Amino acid sequence: MASFGISGKRHSPRISSHVSSSPSYSPVGFRLIHSLSSQSKENRDGAPLDKRRRMVGKEATPPDETRARKVFSSVNSDPDPVVPLHHSGIEFLSREDVEKLLGEEMKGKNNSDSKMMEYVEKLKICIKWHMAREDGYLEDQKKQRNFMEDEEKRHNDIVTQLRAKIDELETMNNEPKAENRKFLENERDAQITFESQEEIKPKEVLNTRKKKHKEQSNEELSCLRSELQQVKDDCNKARAEVQSLTLVIAKYEEITKTLDMITMKTVDLEETCAFQRTEILSLQHQLSAKKDELKQADLSVNTMTSKVEEQKIIIEELKNHLVEGEKLLKKQHNTILELKGNIRVFCRVRPIMANNDSSGTNGAVISYPTSVESFGRGIDLTHGAQKHSFTFDKVFSYEASQEDVFVEISQLVQSAFDGYKVCIFAYGQTGSGKTYTMMGNPNIPEQKGLISRSLEQIFEASQSLQCQGWEYKIKASMLEIYNETIRDLLSPSCSSSVEGKQYSIKHDANGNTVVSDLTVVDVCTEQAAQSLHQAACNRSLGKTNMNEQSSRSHVIFTLKIVGTNESTKDQVQGILNLIDLAGSERLAKSGCTGDRLKETQAINKSLSALNDVISALANKEDHVPFRNSKLTYLLQPCLSGDSKILMLLNISPEASSSGESISSLRFAARVNNCVIGIPRRHIQMRSRSDSRPL
Ligand SMILES: Nc1ncnc2c1ncn2[C@@H]1O[C@H](COP(=O)(O)OP(=O)(O)OP(=O)(O)O)[C@@H](O)[C@H]1O
C-alpha cells in the first residue's frame, strides 16, 4: 500500500507551484524574469508539502466527492523585486514604463531619420508582439497550474479515500476472526458447563452451527475482495492521469524555454534599439552641423559666384581690349614695316658641326652684343683679327630651335594668309643651314622646317575661319633653277629624269609671275605637305668640300592662298614664296671640277645677279638688272613690287668660313637697307573677275 501514493518527484505539486506567473522587468529596455525559484506561500509559511499531503490524507475526503478546482495558494502572484537599472538615462521599473516608451512618438526630418524611425517603430511592434505572446503564455501557464493543483488535490483525496478504505477493509477482515475466536471460546465454555452441569447435547447440532458460521465468513471475504479490486482499478486510473499530466508539464517547460529565448531576443532587440537611438541622436547632431556648414558654403559659393561673374565681365572687357589692341598692333606693325621698307633680314647661325674641327681656328668667331639696342638683333664676326658688327631685324644664335625661328616668321605667313604677297628666301654659303631651316626633317616634329610649319599654320587658320564663312583654296607649286634651267619638282616626270622640257617665265600686269606648264597641286591636307617635301627630295644634290649633300640649285616653293567669304562676298589672295637658295661657294675652296665646277659657277652667277639687283635697288638706280639670271627674273615682282620680303641669312660659325660669312653679312646688310615699294593687301569683291595667275 506504500507505493499506492503519488510519490514521483516529477509529479510533485511543488514543481508546478514554483513557476511564477508574474513577469518582472529589468531596465535594459525591459526584461521578463520568470521566477523559477520562488517558493509557494505554503512553503514560505513553513508547511512542507509532504506534511500537507499527510494532513490532506487525514482529512479523508470521500473519493466520490466533486473535484473542486481551486487556485493553489502557492502561486506567487507578486513579481520579484525589481532592481532599477540605468541605461542612457532611461529607467524602466515596470511594464508600464515599457508601454509608455512604446507609446512615445518620434519625429524625424530627413530620409535617414525616417528610415531609422521606421525601424524603431518595427522594433516597438515586435516588442508589443512579444508582450502579447508572453501574456498568452502566462495565461496558459496559470491555467496549467490551476489544473495541476486541482489534479493534485483530487489525487490526495483519492489517496486519502483509498487509505481509509484499506483501513476499513483491514478492520473488516479482522473482525470475523475475533468473532469466531470468541464464539469458539463461548462454545467451549458452554460445553464444559453443559458436560459438567447438564447432560451432553448431541454432536450434529454443533457441526451445523460451525458450518453456518464459516459460510457467513466466506461470503463477507469475497465481498471485501471485490471492493479491494475496485480500489485497485481506481488507483490505476489515477496513475494514468498523473502520467498524462506529467507530459503536459514537460510541454509547458518547453514553452517556458521558448519564452525565455524570446525574452532574450527581445532584450537584444531593445539593446539594439537603444544603441540605434543614440546613433540617431548623434547623426541628427552631425546632420544639423553639416547643414550649418552647407549654409555657410552656400553663402560663400554665392559670394564667389557673383565675384566670378564680375571677373568674367572684366575678362570679357579685357578680351575686347586685347582684340582691339591686337588689331592696333597689327596695324602699327604694318605701318612700321612700311616705314622701314618691305624688306626684312633675319640672321641665323647654325651650331658647330661635330665633324668640323675648329680647334685650329682661334675658337669662336661669332659673338652677340649684349647692349640693349642690339640685344637679339646684333651679331659680331671676328675676321682677320678685326671685329665686324652687324645689326638685323632679328639674330638667332646657334641655340635657336626651328620653333623659335618659325615664331618670328609666322607673322609673315599670316600676312600671306591675309592677302599679302610674301617672299622668304634663305641665303648663305653652302653648308650654313639653309635647307635645314626651310625643309628641316618633317619626320621629327621639333626639326620640322619653315615649309611644313607654314602649311600647318595656314591649314589651321583656314579651318578656324570656316565658322565665319571663309572658304580657302590653297594651291602649291615647286620648281628649281639648276644651271639656269627650270625643273618642275612636282611633275611626275621629274623623278623619272625626263629632261628637256622648257619652262618660260612671264610677269602679268598685276605683278604676278607665271611659269608656263608648271604643275600646280591643290593642297587640302597636311599629308599633301608630306608629298611636297618628298618633291623637294627631287632637287639636285651633290657633294662638295663644304657639304656632304649640297643643294646645287635654287628651290622655290610657292603657295597661292585664295580665301572666299560667301556672306561678305570678300575674296583675298595671298602668295607665299619660300625659297631655298643654292649655297654660295668660292670656287677655289669648293674644290669642284667638271660638272660640279659648272654648277658652282652657275650658282655663283645667279647669286651675284641677285647681289647686283639688290645693289641697284639699294642705290635706287634706274635700271635694275632682273633679267641677268632666272632667279632674279623669277623674283622680280617680289623684289620690285608690293611684297613683304624676308631674307634669312644663314651663317656657318666656323672660323674657316669667316670669309664667306663676312661676305654674306655685308650682302644681307645691303638688302636690309633696300626700300622696295609698299606692301599691299590683295583683297577684292568676289564678283570681280580674278584672272591672276600664280
Ligand atoms: N640649326 C641647325 N641645327 C642643327 N643642324 C644644322 C642646323 N643648320 C644646319 N644644320 C646641319 O648642317 C648641315 C648643313 O646644313 P644644310 O644642308 O641645311 O646647309 P645648306 O646651307 O642648305 O647647304 P647647301 O647650300 O650646300 O645646300 C646639315 O647636316 C644640317 O643638318
TrEMBL record:
UniProt GO MF annotations: ATP binding; microtubule binding; microtubule motor activity
GO biological process, one term: microtubule-based movement
CDD domains the UniProt entry points to: KISc_C_terminal
Coiled coil feature spans: 214-255
Positions with biased composition (Low complexity): 14-28
Family the entry assigns: Belongs to the TRAFAC class myosin-kinesin ATPase superfamily. Kinesin family. KIN-14 subfamily.
The name this protein goes by in its record: Kinesin motor domain-containing protein
